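lol forgot to send this yesterday, sorry. C-alpha cells for the thing we talked abt
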C-alpha cells in the first residue's frame, strides 16, 4: 500500500450501488398507521420502517393505483 494516493489523477466511475441507496425522510403518519405497521413488522421480525419501505416498493413495482377516501 502506498503511503499517499493522488486522488486527482484517479478516474471516476459511477457508484454501482446507487440504486440500492436510501434517502432518509420525515413523514407525518397517523398513529393508527404506525401501530399497524409496528404490529405486522413484529410478526415478521423486521423493523416497521423496513416494512413500510417494502410495502411502498411493492406499490412502485406493481404500479398500484391509489384510491383516496375521505374520513368526513
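and heres what i got for the seq, position by position
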Amino acid at each position: 500500500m502506498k503511503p499517499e494516493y493522488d486522488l486527482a489523477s484517479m478516474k471516476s466511475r459511477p457508484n454501482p450501488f446507487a440504486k440500492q441507496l436510501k434517502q432518509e425522510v420525515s413523514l407525518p403518519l397517523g398513529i393508527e398507521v404506525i401501530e399497524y405497521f409496528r404490529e405486522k413488522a413484529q410478526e415478521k421480525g423486521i423493523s416497521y420502517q423496513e416494512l413500510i419501505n417494502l410495502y411502498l416498493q411493492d406499490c412502485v413495482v406493481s404500479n398500484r393505483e391509489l384510491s383516496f377516501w375521505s374520513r368526513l
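Helices lie at 31-44, 48-61. anyway ping me if u want another try
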